[in-house]
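pinging the channel bc i need a second pair of eyes. not urgent but kinda urgent?? the chain im working w is below, pasted from the shared doc
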Amino acid sequence: MRPSLALPIKYSSADRTQSIARPQLSRWWTRLGDPTLNALIEEAIQGNLNVAAAKAQVREARATYRQAEGTLLPALGGNSSANRLRTATTAVRGATTDQQDSTQYQAGFDASWEIDFFGRNQRGVEAAFYGLEAADEQLRLAMLTLIGDVASNYVSARGYQARIALAQRTAKVQRDAAQLIKVRMAAGSATAMDLANATGQARSTEAAIPGLRISYAEAVHRLSVLTGRAPGELTERLKRQAPIPRPKLPMPVGIPADTLLSRPDIRSAERQLAQATARIGQAEASRYPSINLIGNIATTGLSVGDLAKNSSIGWSFGPALNVPLFRGGQLQAAVEVIQAQRDQNFVAYQAAVLRSLEEIENALVALAQERVRYGKLSASVEAYRQSATLSRTLYEGGSADFMSVLDAQRSLYSAEDAFVQSRIALANSYVALNKALGGGWDGGVDASKREIVDKDMGPRLARKP
């Protein structure tokens, strides 16, 4: 049973165009329409090291669960021994002593079974099962985080490519303008100051390109590492420029209660709370008597062959009762320790829910406001483009000075660069919103494959290191 929490009926930051229908989070990145991004995410799921570590944690939880299940079953064991004996017989009146050596062989089986009368072992199995479910959710969380990181770094990489291309185009236009000034200077219709200003502006634009290339390289290197590769392995593959992914907006966001089912961090926190609750029952049961059924059978003979024929056979069977009469308050303290841990898990669950709502609200605000900014910048670019065209026409007609041309070019480049950055931010806001809503990997995941395959693990004689 999930803990009850009071949640708002809707997101305060959702605008009127956003539907409260449950969001389509399954493979949400495919709606960006970029095959390269789709392929990188598939590769990251297979090769990422954080995901590999989370898979190992799932295998550990599965083994722990099987280990706990074993406590519900009887335990059987076998034993055998061989002893060399010497017996001495002394004559009644004489001093002579007869000695006789013999070998005694013994083999047997023993069994024990704890009757789980108060449910201690059963609660331990429940706790292990909830731990397994929590590990599964942690794996889902690792993949959700990975997909968001791959998508945002890919968007950034394509964005830096676009900004580099824009800076290169703008610098070329500015260099062409400087060449035009040289021609006009030769004709006496331009000044050296005009040439210096034109050259300086072109060099200033060119100076921005190395910084953009650094950021682009960092994004590509990060993508390579996220997919489990060396940092430079994707450089050649992503070298060719491609458009910045463009999301389809608006998108449905659902209601806050949907996050209880869609966010793996919330599901994991809830399973950890259930695990702590089961451990309380396990600790409580340890305060009460335990009952074990114990039995064994053994056969003894003077030779190995006699064990099945001419041998003495003994057996025993019966219950064993263990009553914890006095432990100095340790058992009660153990219960209180786990109760405190349960309270911590409950608080962590509440914090996970509130954190998810905060992230969604922030993502909604960022996406909505970036859409407004994107529209304003689009209009700004169009206006500055007209201004650049008009200023150049007026300058060539002698109705304006060259500084007005430089100012118009500078303003146009600034507006176009801000517009590209807005496109990047818009795509990243879309990524952040899907991530906040719990959109992750919903395909099959094989967590059974080990990273290291052990060989020759049979028994062997101990050797010195």
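so DSSP finds eight helices and four strands in the chain. and Helices lie at 35-47, 49-69, 120-187, 192-226, 259-262, 264-285, 330-396, 402-437. — does that match what u expected or am i reading it wrong
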